[in-house]
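Today's session is about reading a structure prediction critically. Students often jump straight to the picture, but the first step is always the sequence itself: look for stretches that repeat, for charged clusters, for runs of hydrophobic residues. Only then move on to the predicted structure, which in these notes is written as discrete structure tokens rather than atom positions. Here is the chain we will use throughout the hour.
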Amino acid sequence: MKPPVPMGPPDVAELRDLIDQWAEFTGDLERRDYTFDLDNWRNDVDVRELILEALPMFSREEMGDHALKLDAADTAFTAGTRVFKRCIWGHGTQKKEKWTPERNWWYFRTPLRSNAQLEDELATVR
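Below is the predicted structure for this chain, in token form.
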């Protein structure tokens, strides 16, 4: 049996793809109501967590224009959301993952232009 092939160095193109996803999502928040449920919201903001995890592997120079695109997307996300009183994943997950409102701020925000289902589900987050 052959040993597993070692993984190569991380690919900056993957980080750029995540930033593109984040930018599209945050742009949509500015243009229209968020019509999905809490599971979808969590999945959407998880993209920003993946970006955070990848950022130490690349310089802003390697990211190119995507570094500025990330800055603009973060600004758009902040403008299209409001502070939420707790982590959208709940206290247990927040504690386990060591997420803080300062470092992982996307998990502590919800859409300004929300919907009844999402708001009902957010009310149950503990």
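Discussion point for the tutorial: Residues 99 and 107 are 8 Å apart (CA to CA).
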